[in-house]
């Protein structure tokens, strides 16, 4: 495994990429309402990334993916296709996953949940999943092993009766969209994959948490991953930089408060 350590000049480029990804989620948030289609949301994000940010939506043409964003509704775990005929309705929860590639060639990857109208089960799942992300981010610093982060996610999710998806993981990120290491969100590490973090590493944490079982299946379109038991699924994602003293959340948004980080 080759986990890149970013140089100071690469870190500046990662900061810019992270800010850009965050700005897309901030821009689109007020637009995500009942009656809007997931295709509309994707198109707005695409046009903003290209025309306002001067960057590229990294998913487009990535291994044959045909959209700028991934939009995963309700029981869709990840990699949902935006669709102009899919209008949001009350009680829906959706994940919008944004990855930008800047003109410098660096990636920022972040996703957030949006809730349409009211859903008690959906709100609880989204909140616990975000807590899984935050609790693991709080542990990030040099010397900590990936399995230690994974265990806090698994404990929090399973403690609330939920399950942690096994089939998709977080990842190193930089000039590559997906770099080493793979970050599993559950305690399933082979000894040589359970690396210790070092300052200068960039990676994502992006737990996918299900109300029912952890099993997923990919639909015949080759991309859309759904829960096998059709239960609700949620995900939140940030791109992180490991610093000498802790962590920097490169994709932090203005609606978030990271004052709980003690670095
Ligand atoms: N953004 C996703 C991730 O968090 C990857 C999407 S792959 C794509 O890693 F091809 F759908 F873009
Ligand atoms: Co990612
Ligand atoms: Co992503």
Automatic annotation (TrEMBL):
Its EC number is 3.4.11.18. Substrate binds at residues 79, 178. Keywords: Aminopeptidase, Hydrolase, Metal-binding, Protease. SUPFAM superfamilies: Creatinase/aminopeptidase (SSF55920). Pfam families: Peptidase_M24. Residues 12-244 form the Peptidase M24 domain. A divalent metal cation 2 binds at residues 109, 171, 206, 237. InterPro entries: Creatinase/aminopeptidase-like, Pept_M24, Pept_M24_MAP, Pept_M24A_MAP1. This is Methionine aminopeptidase. It comes from Halomonas citrativorans. The lineage of its organism: Bacteria, Pseudomonadati, Pseudomonadota, Gammaproteobacteria, Oceanospirillales. The gene is map.
């Amino acid at each position: 495994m080759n986990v890149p350590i970013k140089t100071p000049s690469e870190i500046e480029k990662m900061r810019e990429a992270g800010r850009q990804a965050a700005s897309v989620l901030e821009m689109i948030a007020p637009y995500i309402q009942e009656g809007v289609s997931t295709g509309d949301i994707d198109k707005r994000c695409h046009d903003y990334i290209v025309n306002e940010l001067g960057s590229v939506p990294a998913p487009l043409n990535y291994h044959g993916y045909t959209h700028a964003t991934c939009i995963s509704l309700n029981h869709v775990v990840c990699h949902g296709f935006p669709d102009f005929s899919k209008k949001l309705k009350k009680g829906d929860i959706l994940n919008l996953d944004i990855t930008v590639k800047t003109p410098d060639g660096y990636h920022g990857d972040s996703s957030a949940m949006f809730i349409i109208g009211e859903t008690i089960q959906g709100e609880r799942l989204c909140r616990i999943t975000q807590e899984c992300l935050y609790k693991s981010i709080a542990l990030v610093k040099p010397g900590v092993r990936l399995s230690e982060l994974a265990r806090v996610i698994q404990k929090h999710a399973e403690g609330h009766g939920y399950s942690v998806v096994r089939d998709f993981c977080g990842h190193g990120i930089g000039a590559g969209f997906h770099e080493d290491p793979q970050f599993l969100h559950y305690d399933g590490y082979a000894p040589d994959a359970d690396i210790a973090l070092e300052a200068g590493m960039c990676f994502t944490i992006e737990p996918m948490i299900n109300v029912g079982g952890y099993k997923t299946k990919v639909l015949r379109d080759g991309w859309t991953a759904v829960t096998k038991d059709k239960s609700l699924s949620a995900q939140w994602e940030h791109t992180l930089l490991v610093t000498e003293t802790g962590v920097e959340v490169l994709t932090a948004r203005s609606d978030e408060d990271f004052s709980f980080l003690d670095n």
